[in-house]
Amino acid sequence: xxxxxxxxWDGDIVRVNYTLSLKDGSVFGSSTDPLPFEFMIGRGxxxxxxxxxxxxxxxxxxxxxxxxxEKAYGPYDDELxxxxxxxxxxxxxxxxxxxxLQVRTTEGIEIEGQVTAxxxxxxxxxxxxxxxxxxxxxxxxxLKIIRPG
Length: 149
Prior knowledge:
Blueprint: E1 13-22, E2 27-31, E3 37-40, H1 48-54, E4 62-67, E5 81-85, E6 100-104, E7 110-118, E8 122-126, E9 136-146
Antiparallel strand pairs: 1-2, 1-3, 1-9, 4-9, 5-8, 6-7, 7-8
């Protein structure tokens, strides 16, 4: 008797391997055997576009999905890039270019972003997500579907 093929649906727990890259092919993340990524479809644990790509896949199936910025981390917003006086940041904060900051200024303002430029008086901070404005490419392999209950 032939085993019925299962497709992934809302409420299923799935184990996948994936590779995340940008349109130019640069790889930014992946999961691989023996440590696949596991999540429940419909719980909002992953990008909706990633979740939607998994829905309807069969165990053992692999697909490549391109996700436009508006369905990923949104467009790049120039208004989320600003300059802060060094003196407003806590003493000892790591203010090198490329550092991700999570600090409260001396004025009580929460800042979370990446340092993109510095000089002796000012720090430029970009609060955009690192993938804002970028098209993402996921290669997804559905390894296992687990039906709860």
